[in-house]
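Section 5.1 Outputs to date
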Amino acid sequence: METDFIGTVEDPPPDVRELAHRIEREWAALQQVISPLGVGQMTAPGAGGWSAKDELAHLSAWTRGVAALLRKQPRYPAMGLPPEVDPFSLDLDRLNQIIFENRRDIPLEKVLDEALAAHLDLLAAVSALSDDDLMKTYSEFQPQDGELDDDEPILYQIGGISYGHYAEHRQDVLKTLNRG
Protein backbone atom coordinates (compact mmCIF):
# COMPACT_ATOMS: atom_id res chain seq x y z
CA MET A 1 0.00 0.00 0.00
CA GLU A 2 1.32 3.43 -0.97
CA THR A 3 0.29 6.67 0.64
CA ASP A 4 0.55 10.32 -0.13
CA PHE A 5 -0.13 13.44 1.87
CA ILE A 6 -3.88 13.46 1.10
CA GLY A 7 -5.20 9.95 0.99
CA THR A 8 -4.32 6.31 0.68
CA VAL A 9 -4.23 4.43 -2.58
CA GLU A 10 -4.47 0.67 -2.39
CA ASP A 11 -4.35 -1.45 -5.51
CA PRO A 12 -3.57 1.45 -7.86
CA PRO A 13 -5.23 1.41 -11.26
CA PRO A 14 -3.10 -0.07 -14.05
CA ASP A 15 -3.83 2.59 -16.66
CA VAL A 16 -5.41 5.97 -17.41
CA ARG A 17 -8.72 4.42 -18.41
CA GLU A 18 -9.12 2.65 -15.07
CA LEU A 19 -7.93 5.74 -13.17
CA ALA A 20 -10.61 7.83 -14.87
CA HIS A 21 -13.17 5.11 -14.10
CA ARG A 22 -12.30 5.15 -10.39
CA ILE A 23 -12.46 8.94 -10.28
CA GLU A 24 -15.90 8.86 -11.93
CA ARG A 25 -17.13 6.08 -9.64
CA GLU A 26 -16.18 7.94 -6.46
CA TRP A 27 -17.56 11.21 -7.85
CA ALA A 28 -20.88 9.45 -8.50
CA ALA A 29 -20.88 8.03 -4.96
CA LEU A 30 -20.22 11.50 -3.56
CA GLN A 31 -23.01 12.98 -5.68
CA GLN A 32 -25.40 10.28 -4.50
CA VAL A 33 -24.86 11.55 -0.95
CA ILE A 34 -24.83 15.28 -1.78
CA SER A 35 -27.59 15.55 -4.41
CA PRO A 36 -30.61 14.91 -2.19
CA LEU A 37 -29.51 17.40 0.47
CA GLY A 38 -31.34 20.66 0.99
CA VAL A 39 -29.68 24.00 1.63
CA GLY A 40 -29.91 23.58 5.40
CA GLN A 41 -28.23 20.17 5.29
CA MET A 42 -25.54 21.41 2.91
CA THR A 43 -24.65 24.42 5.04
CA ALA A 44 -25.01 23.03 8.60
CA PRO A 45 -21.59 22.51 10.15
CA GLY A 46 -20.65 19.10 11.45
CA ALA A 47 -18.71 18.22 14.58
CA GLY A 48 -15.45 19.40 13.00
CA GLY A 49 -17.01 22.71 11.98
CA TRP A 50 -17.22 21.93 8.26
CA SER A 51 -20.49 21.65 6.39
CA ALA A 52 -21.10 19.51 3.31
CA LYS A 53 -20.65 22.72 1.32
CA ASP A 54 -17.24 23.23 2.97
CA GLU A 55 -16.26 19.66 2.16
CA LEU A 56 -17.08 20.27 -1.52
CA ALA A 57 -15.22 23.59 -1.57
CA HIS A 58 -12.20 21.84 -0.07
CA LEU A 59 -12.37 19.05 -2.64
CA SER A 60 -12.65 21.58 -5.46
CA ALA A 61 -9.49 23.36 -4.37
CA TRP A 62 -7.42 20.18 -4.18
CA THR A 63 -8.92 18.81 -7.40
CA ARG A 64 -8.04 22.02 -9.26
CA GLY A 65 -4.55 21.77 -7.82
CA VAL A 66 -3.93 18.25 -9.07
CA ALA A 67 -5.33 19.13 -12.50
CA ALA A 68 -2.87 22.04 -12.69
CA LEU A 69 -0.07 19.77 -11.48
CA LEU A 70 -0.78 17.32 -14.31
CA ARG A 71 -0.69 20.16 -16.84
CA LYS A 72 2.65 21.27 -15.38
CA GLN A 73 1.09 24.52 -14.20
CA PRO A 74 1.55 25.98 -10.71
CA ARG A 75 -0.82 24.03 -8.51
CA TYR A 76 -1.18 26.29 -5.47
CA PRO A 77 -2.58 29.33 -7.31
CA ALA A 78 -5.01 26.93 -9.03
CA MET A 79 -6.15 25.90 -5.55
CA GLY A 80 -7.03 29.50 -4.81
CA LEU A 81 -4.26 30.05 -2.27
CA PRO A 82 -3.31 33.70 -1.87
CA PRO A 83 0.12 34.58 -3.30
CA GLU A 84 1.46 35.46 0.16
CA VAL A 85 0.85 31.91 1.43
CA ASP A 86 3.92 29.67 1.24
CA PRO A 87 2.45 26.15 1.09
CA PHE A 88 5.88 24.62 1.70
CA SER A 89 6.13 26.22 5.14
CA LEU A 90 2.76 24.90 6.33
CA ASP A 91 1.58 21.53 7.53
CA LEU A 92 -1.44 19.98 5.86
CA ASP A 93 -3.87 20.99 8.60
CA ARG A 94 -2.88 24.66 8.36
CA LEU A 95 -3.04 24.56 4.57
CA ASN A 96 -6.54 23.06 4.74
CA GLN A 97 -7.57 25.70 7.28
CA ILE A 98 -6.49 28.47 4.89
CA ILE A 99 -8.45 26.84 2.07
CA PHE A 100 -11.48 26.60 4.38
CA GLU A 101 -11.21 30.24 5.47
CA ASN A 102 -10.83 31.46 1.88
CA ARG A 103 -13.80 29.47 0.59
CA ARG A 104 -16.33 29.33 3.43
CA ASP A 105 -18.27 32.42 2.32
CA ILE A 106 -18.74 31.26 -1.27
CA PRO A 107 -22.47 30.75 -1.96
CA LEU A 108 -23.67 27.15 -2.10
CA GLU A 109 -24.69 27.28 -5.77
CA LYS A 110 -21.25 28.53 -6.76
CA VAL A 111 -19.57 25.81 -4.68
CA LEU A 112 -21.69 23.16 -6.41
CA ASP A 113 -20.84 24.57 -9.84
CA GLU A 114 -17.15 24.79 -8.95
CA ALA A 115 -17.07 21.22 -7.64
CA LEU A 116 -18.42 19.91 -10.93
CA ALA A 117 -16.11 22.14 -12.98
CA ALA A 118 -13.08 21.04 -10.93
CA HIS A 119 -14.03 17.38 -11.34
CA LEU A 120 -14.41 17.76 -15.11
CA ASP A 121 -11.13 19.69 -15.27
CA LEU A 122 -9.37 16.84 -13.50
CA LEU A 123 -10.87 14.25 -15.83
CA ALA A 124 -9.65 16.28 -18.82
CA ALA A 125 -6.15 16.51 -17.33
CA VAL A 126 -6.08 12.78 -16.58
CA SER A 127 -7.37 11.93 -20.05
CA ALA A 128 -4.48 13.86 -21.58
CA LEU A 129 -1.98 11.57 -19.84
CA SER A 130 -0.48 8.42 -21.24
CA ASP A 131 -0.26 5.26 -19.20
CA ASP A 132 3.50 5.87 -18.99
CA ASP A 133 2.87 9.34 -17.54
CA LEU A 134 1.27 7.71 -14.51
CA MET A 135 4.65 6.26 -13.58
CA LYS A 136 6.45 9.62 -13.66
CA THR A 137 7.30 11.26 -10.37
CA TYR A 138 5.97 14.50 -8.94
CA SER A 139 9.08 16.45 -9.90
CA GLU A 140 8.59 15.55 -13.56
CA PHE A 141 5.32 17.52 -13.40
CA GLN A 142 6.36 20.19 -10.89
CA PRO A 143 10.17 20.55 -10.99
CA GLN A 144 10.02 23.75 -8.94
CA ASP A 145 8.52 21.73 -6.05
CA GLY A 146 11.27 19.10 -6.08
CA GLU A 147 11.43 18.80 -2.32
CA LEU A 148 7.94 17.27 -2.40
CA ASP A 149 9.08 14.42 -4.63
CA ASP A 150 9.14 11.10 -2.84
CA ASP A 151 10.01 9.09 -5.97
CA GLU A 152 6.54 7.53 -6.06
CA PRO A 153 4.66 7.50 -9.34
CA ILE A 154 2.32 10.50 -9.74
CA LEU A 155 -0.48 7.95 -9.92
CA TYR A 156 -0.52 7.89 -6.11
CA GLN A 157 -0.93 11.67 -5.88
CA ILE A 158 -3.71 11.60 -8.44
CA GLY A 159 -5.53 8.73 -6.75
CA GLY A 160 -5.17 10.15 -3.26
CA ILE A 161 -6.36 13.62 -4.23
CA SER A 162 -9.16 12.42 -6.50
CA TYR A 163 -10.99 9.19 -5.84
CA GLY A 164 -9.37 8.64 -2.44
CA HIS A 165 -10.21 12.18 -1.38
CA TYR A 166 -13.77 11.99 -2.74
CA ALA A 167 -14.35 8.81 -0.71
CA GLU A 168 -12.85 10.34 2.45
CA HIS A 169 -15.03 13.44 2.31
CA ARG A 170 -18.13 11.48 1.34
CA GLN A 171 -17.68 9.64 4.63
CA ASP A 172 -17.24 12.95 6.45
CA VAL A 173 -20.51 14.24 5.01
CA LEU A 174 -22.29 11.04 6.00
CA LYS A 175 -20.96 11.37 9.56
CA THR A 176 -22.23 14.94 9.71
CA LEU A 177 -25.66 13.90 8.43
CA ASN A 178 -25.90 11.04 10.93
CA ARG A 179 -25.32 13.47 13.80
CA GLY A 180 -28.13 15.78 12.70
